[in-house]
Amino acid sequence: MIFDNGTQSRMLMRSLQRALNNDEAGRRITDPEAGPLFSGEQEEGDQASGTIYVLRSKSDHPLVAANRDLVHKIGVTDQNVAQRIAGARLQATFLMADVELVATFELFNINRNKLENLIHRVFDPARLDIEVRDRFDRPVRAREWFLVPMIVIDEAVERIKDGTITSYVYDPTLARLVER
Fold it and tell me: Fewer CB within 10 Å, N side or C side of the chain?
C-alpha cells in the first residue's frame, strides 16, 4: 500500500479497514472520477473545522529582525485566531514577542492536526532552528517558524485545496515548492 504522502506499508486488509473506520477524516475512493477530497468553496452541510493562520513576529531576535518579511509561523487552530494570538509576547511558541496576522484560511471537513503536520512536513527544509527563553528563563525551541515567502505559503494552500500538496516539498535554495 502506498499512501498519499508517499509512505509505504505492508498493511493487512483488516488493519487497513480498522484504521479507516477509526479515522474521522479517512476516505475510501472507489471511483477514480469522484473528484478531489478538498474543495476551495464552502458548500451546504460542510462543517467548520478550523483555520490555517500565518503570522509574522515582531521579535527583536537578530535572525527574525534580519529576515522579518520571510519568517512566518504557520499553524492551524480551532479557536478564533485573535484569541489564539492574544498574549503572544508571553508565549515561547510566539518567540516571546507580539505578532502580526498576515493571512488566514478557513478549513472545512478536515482533520486539523493531520493538516498542520502535513504543512510542517512540506516546509520542514526551511524550519527555523531558533531558541528563545520563556518567562521562567528556560530555553525553548519554537518549532512552527519557517523562512518562507508568503507567495509560496499561498501556493501551498492552493495545492491543499486541489489535493496535490502531498507531491510537493519546499526547496529553500529555489524558494519555491518543487515536486518530490
Answer: C
